[in-house]
Amino acid sequence: MTILSEEEFLALDPTLGRVELLDGRLVTGPLLSNSHQRVSSLLASALDGPAEAAGLLALKGVNVRLRPGRIVIPDVIVADPADDDEQVLEAWQLTLVAEVVARDNAQSDLVVKMRCYAEAGIAWYLLVEQEPPGAVTLRLHRLDGGRYVEGAKAGPGEALTLTEPLAVTLDPAALLPWGRGRAVRLGPAQRSGVMPRGPR
């Protein structure tokens, strides 16, 4: 098995597609479906304004270094502003990481990446599941004692309200890949809804 350095990894041809580095091993994921990419784009758009209002940035498909030799590409992140010329963001810059659960590779998002993000100390992990069929379910996890604990969930007919690390209310129905409507409603911290606690 060939072990790559970070320098070798970052020098790879970008046309290779979605390629990640896990402890020196090159991991090539399956091509993202149209619906997966659409949900990611809708989520990034929904988080963009609220993130900016909090002095943060919502970004889609960027390299994140979780630790030396471990560089991944989350679907969406919320992070401290970064240098536009940087190839890689550091885990400490992230306040929230989000993954749209891949239907054909759910194990990666539900187990492997959840463990890696927790080990990197990222405070919030948002899972976007395209379940039940024809719907979207949001599951927000907070870091607690080095592991993620589910703090809030919103399915069809519900909304997910965050007060940390940014103030935003997400409507799962508006994240349907071919749906219509608004995905976000800004509101003050005391707005009614699910209000998760901060990480310990």
Average pLDDT, all residues: 85
Q: In DSSP terms, counting alpha (H) and pi (I) runs of 4 or more, how many helices?
A: 3
Unreliable spans: 185-195
Termini gap: 39 Å
Largest sheet, if any? 6 strands, mixed
Number of strands: 14
Return the string of H and E elements: HEEHEEEEEEHEEEEEE
Beta-strand share of residues: 25-35%
Spatial order of strands in the largest sheet: 3-6-8-9-10-11
Oligomer: single chain
Helical proportion, percent range: 10-25%
Q: What characteristic shape results from the CA principal axes?
A: globular
Radius of gyration: 16 Å
Class derived from helix and strand content:
alpha+beta
Give structural notes.
The protein has 200 residues and is an alpha+beta fold. Helices cover 20% and strands 32% of the residues. It contains 3 helices and 14 strands. The strands form 3 sheets. Strands 3-6-8-9-10-11 form a 6-stranded mixed sheet. The protein starts with 5 loop residues before the first helix and ends in a 15-residue tail after the last strand.
